[in-house]
Write a structure and sequence with these properties.
Order of helices and strands: EHHEEEEEEH
Shape: elongated
Number of strands: 7
Distance between the termini: 5 Å
Strand order of the largest sheet: 1-3-4-5-2
Length: 139
């Protein structure tokens, strides 16, 4: 599988009063890392590939994380991201967050490839993931 690598430096505003990263910030990092994975796989920014494939995006429908090592202001994290499973319209993404070469966090997402519902344009619906996209994410 194709792996995207994304470095994050922990900023002051990412931390809680205890001086460690406030856990919801990791999910924002994961979202950015998924975007970078697709950019690497498809060779274009999200605004371009959503237009090319005629979709709205890939909203998250399930997420979780296992936290092993805390991070603090000034730490540099490396996020390794890959899509690990594909179904008709949904796919799984795994994020391994490394701190100093050690596994600090494992993040997991399930996302759905979506477009507008032609019967009701105010709603979204799942769409089949194009085989070309799957192949590119597989590397």
């Amino acid at each position: 599988m194709l792996v995207s690598t994304y470095e994050v430096e922990i900023e002051w505003g990412d931390c809680d009063p205890a001086g460690i990263v406030f856990y919801p910030r990791y999910f924002a990092y994961f979202d950015a890392a998924t975007g970078r994975l697709f950019e690497l796989a498809l060779g274009m920014k999200k605004i371009a590939w959503t237009a090319q494939y005629g979709i709205l995006g890939y909203p998250m429908v399930d997420t979780r994380a296992t936290f092993k090592i805390p991070s603090r202001y000034g730490d540099i994290l490396t996020i390794e991201t890959q899509a690990t499973a594909f179904r008709r319209s949904s796919f799984d993404v795994v994020h391994n967050v490394l701190k100093g070469g050690e596994l600090a966090i494992e993040g997991f997402e399930t996302r759905v490839w979506t477009g507008r519902d032609p019967d009701d344009p105010t709603r979204i619906r799942s769409e089949p993931i194009p085989q070309e996209v799957i192949e590119r994410l597989k590397g």
